[in-house]
Structure formats: structure tokens, C-alpha cells
Amino acid sequence: MHEQTHGFFTLLLHFLAAGTLGLVASSLAMSFGSRFADRLPGESRRPLCLYCSRPLTWQEASPLIGWLLRPDTFSFPCPCGLRTGLWQQPFCELLGFSLGLLSVALQGWSWPLIPLCIGMGLLPAMALIDFHFGIIPDELNLLLGVCGAFFTILSGGDFFMGLIVASALLCLGLFFALVYSRWRGKEMLGLGDVKFFAAAGFWMHAHTAPTFLMLSGLLGFLFTLVWRRISHEKEFPFAPALSLSLALCVFARFVMAP
Are 181 and 187 in contact (CB under 8 A)? Predict the structure, then answer.
């Protein structure tokens, strides 16, 4: 009985630790990434309130606590209280926590889980930032690629194959962004999306890359159709489709592993 109780609490701690890693990664990526996307050259990288430009205190920028300490928390206010209904930050943190839980459920507790939870936690923030600002910050793309490289190394994967896949996806993305876009006369792929391609390559095997590309294209097409119905706008950012596709491809590896 004692051993069963000990095992239960150990499992619970593992889930809480993984969920917290995902939540912290999502929260910090959303706070700092939004600032990276919105700031002008020469301005501070420190997170600001988007509505009064007041620098955030460390409590306000802290994951989860930054929301719980604000008055009337469930109205989702900004730190200065000038705007409410700002669901993006708590929604991003909730997704990050959920992806951390899913990571430990599929991968189990091990050292590779740390870069896995952090990397998956970045994806909701990248999708939401691209949705609101139309850009994927270079810093988040770089961190996503570094997490993928560490995950590959710590899990005993082939780092050099990941480097080859990343290079191939980078070249393909540059072709669509520079050559195909010019031929079509409109931007088919942004440079932030191209860098996401390269970062995603470190997370995948060579045979997974075509699935990632097809899934990204299909989800991007479906998201655009839905967005046109809702907003009547023709353009929809690509990062939500890229982020969801990468998460599905990464988690599918664990589900299909023998």
C-alpha cells in the first residue's frame, strides 16, 4: 500500500513538473515574444503593457501569478486595468500546461522531457503572436530550434540527420518565400515562417518532414477558409497551422513508437 501511494505521488509530481515547464515556457514566450514583435528598433525588450506602455513589474510578467495578483482576475485585465477581456495570455498558459501534461504522458519522465516541454510550450505563444502581430519573433524560432536539437541529442537521436532535415526545410521555405512568391506575384510564405521550418527540422526524422509539410498546408488551407467565413478577410497567419502540425508530428512519434 505504501509503495502504491509513493508511486502515485511520484507520478503526480512528474505531471505537475511537466505541466509547469510548459506553462512557464508559454507564459514567458507570450510576454517577451509579444514585445519582440511589437517593439520599434532601439526600444527596450522588456515587456510592456500594450495599452499604456508601462513596463511590467516582475510580478505582472510572472507566469500564472501575473494574472492571479491582478484585481478582478476573471475579467482578464491588462496590468494597468485600461482594457479587459484579454484572454490571450491565460489561454496561452493553459495550452502550455496541457502540452506539458501530454508530453510526460506520452514520453514518460526523463531528461529529454525538459526540452520537449519547453519546446511544445513555445508553440501556443508563437501561434498567437503571429495571429495578432503578423510576425514570428526570431528569438522564439531560435529557441524552438535549440530545444529541438537538445531533445534529439538527449533522446539518443541523430543530430546530424536533424541538421540535414532543418537545412532541407530551410531551403524549401526560401524557395517558396523568394522564388515562388515572385512568380505568383504575392507573398506565399513569410521569412518568419521560413525560420520556423528550419527550427521544426530539428524535431523530426527525415520521413516525418513530408507529413509535416502536407499537414501544415492542409491546416493552413482549412484555417484560412474558416477565417474568411468569420472575418471576411483573405489572409490568415501561417504560424497556427505550423505550430499545430509540429505538435502533432512530435507527439505522433511517441504514439507510434514500438
Answer: yes
Distance between CA atoms of residues 61 and 233, nearest Å: 33
**Total number of domains constituting the chain:** 1
CB 21 within 8 A of CB 57: no
> For residues 37 and 133, is the Cβ–Cβ distance under 8 A?
yes
* Strand, helix or coil for residue 74: helix
- Model pLDDT, residue 61: 86
Query: And the C-alpha cell for 201?
Result: 527540422
**192: domain range?**
2-256
Cβ atoms of residues 63 and 28 within 8 Å:
yes
The C-alpha cell of 145 is what?
Answer: 530550434
Q: Do residues 24 and 121 lie in contact, with contact meaning Cβ atoms separated by under 8 Å? A: yes
pTM: 0.93
pLDDT in tens, 112-122: 999 999 999 99
| Class of residue 115 by CB neighbours under 10 A (exposed 0-12, middle 13-18, buried 19+) | buried
Burial class (CB in 10 A: 0-12, 13-18, 19+), 96: buried
